[in-house]
Amino acid sequence: MEPELVEIVEGATKLLVPKGSLVEKVPPMKPAFFNPRARINRDFSMIAYATFLRTFKGPKVFLDSLSGIGARSIRVANELDAIEKVFINDVNPKALEIAENIAKLNNVTNCIFSENEACRFLSLHSKRENRGAIVDIDPFGSPSRYLDCGIRATFHGGLLSVTATDLTVLHGLFPAACKRKYYGTPVRTEYGDEIALRLILGCMNIVAGRLDVKIVPLFVQNNMHYYKTYVKVLVKTNNKEEMGYILHCKNCGNRHVTSDVRYECNVCNLKAELAGPLWIGNIYNKNFVSEMIIEEKQLQVDKSCKKILERCKDEADMPPTYFTIDKLAHMKHAAPVSLAKTIEKIQNAGFMASATSLNPAAFKTDARIDEILAVI
Ligand SMILES: C[S@@+](CC[C@H](N)C(=O)[O-])C[C@H]1O[C@@H](n2cnc3c(N)ncnc32)[C@H](O)[C@@H]1O
Ligand SMILES: [Zn+2]
User: Fold this and answer.
1) Which of 91, 125, 228 best tests ligand 1's pocket when mutated (most atoms within 8 Å of CB)?
2) Which of 92, 100, 330, 367 could form a disulfide with 371 if both were Cys (CB 3.0 to 4.6 A apart)?
3) Where residue 224 falls among pLDDT bands split at 50, 70, 90?
4) Which among 340, 332, 319, 318 is positioned nearest to 376, based on CA atoms?
């Protein structure tokens, strides 16, 4: 019997989604996968893509390599006026059949559907003349197997967006698997979300380097279920050293960004742990995020997007890693002080400090742990 499809609206687009995906705790794979909780993930994609398309000069083609029912790609076709052509690909024919019906429902006519393995699909788009201005990789689990062909299918100056949902691997539960998939290992810390994002970017940078191209991170976003990175791909080599390690001391709470392998804490001199190799450069491009804040106003997206973007802008020039107020209170054997007050105290002592989009109860600063503890 044909499983029931339900019509919902996401952004400004009507979607037909399997009923099970709305009522079951984990969205079912059959007849096709759709995750209603990834709506904000797709909202941010609309904002990032709209911002990017404003200044992109080449053919405005979107490649959705693992489309599912096409929720992201048909939203792109329907909500972003600048887009010219949208390629929608998945291995599941049922997902594609639903995607075609969604396209019809929204009267969009610039979509081309294909049933291919994602790497084959992306390889078919690796010639200069048919690369994507925007390429999305949204797999189950790790994106690492798709990075080579994803980068090769992205136009010079194009945008590559990549999702990872293998949270246990990126959080350090399986360090060997993390090293195998991302070339680096995490340390389990209160800022594990940032380490995870930097491991993904680090892996993308290593693959890009091998292909003689360069990635420039523009924006990252996460929630409880996924990490998403948005990078610009440039056909030129990266001469800046943006790979390194984060030294984390579990004794005193110090973090230190370093380009060398070293294990001695530069605050308490005890043996520390090392996360990496990972991306130690910027993870937000301040100009791009500022443009996203303007673009957000034009789109039908969740109202939380605006607040998150404001935080990204504030933290764009901050050094890596963040401090949680809970952990600091624990170290001080005191009740947690409000985030706003903590930031104010650190700024008043002459340091930089800002909230972070990666954790609502945390801040970034250029002050060291001993300086922070002295101030608060
Ligand atoms: C996380 S879902 C994609 C969700 C979709 N991008 C969205 O925003 O709703 C992953 C999709 O990848 C498809 N898939 C899995 N392995 C694939 C492969 N090797 N090549 C192409 N598609 C694949 C699955 O059928 C599934 O639809
Ligand atoms: Zn230490």
Assistant:
1) 91
2) 367
3) confident
4) 332
41 dihedral zone (left: phi>0; alpha: psi -120 to 50; beta): alpha
Which among 265, 376, 251 has a CA at the least distance from the CA of 326?
376
Q: Name the residue among 361, 294, 362 with its Cα closest to residue 322.
A: 362
| Percent of the chain that is helix, strand, coil (3-state, to 5) | 40, 25, 35
Nearest ligand, CA 269:
2
Express each pLDDT in 44-88 by its tens digit.
999 999 999 999 999 999 999 999 999 999 999 999 999 999 999
CATH numbers and ranges of domains, the chain: 5-239 (3.40.50.150)
Q: Is the pTM of this model over 0.90?
A: yes
Which atom of ligand 1 sits closest to the CA of residue 34? 9
Test site for ligand 1: of 17, 39, 66, most ligand atoms within 8 A of the Cβ: 66
Residue nearest to atom 27 of ligand 1 (CA): 68
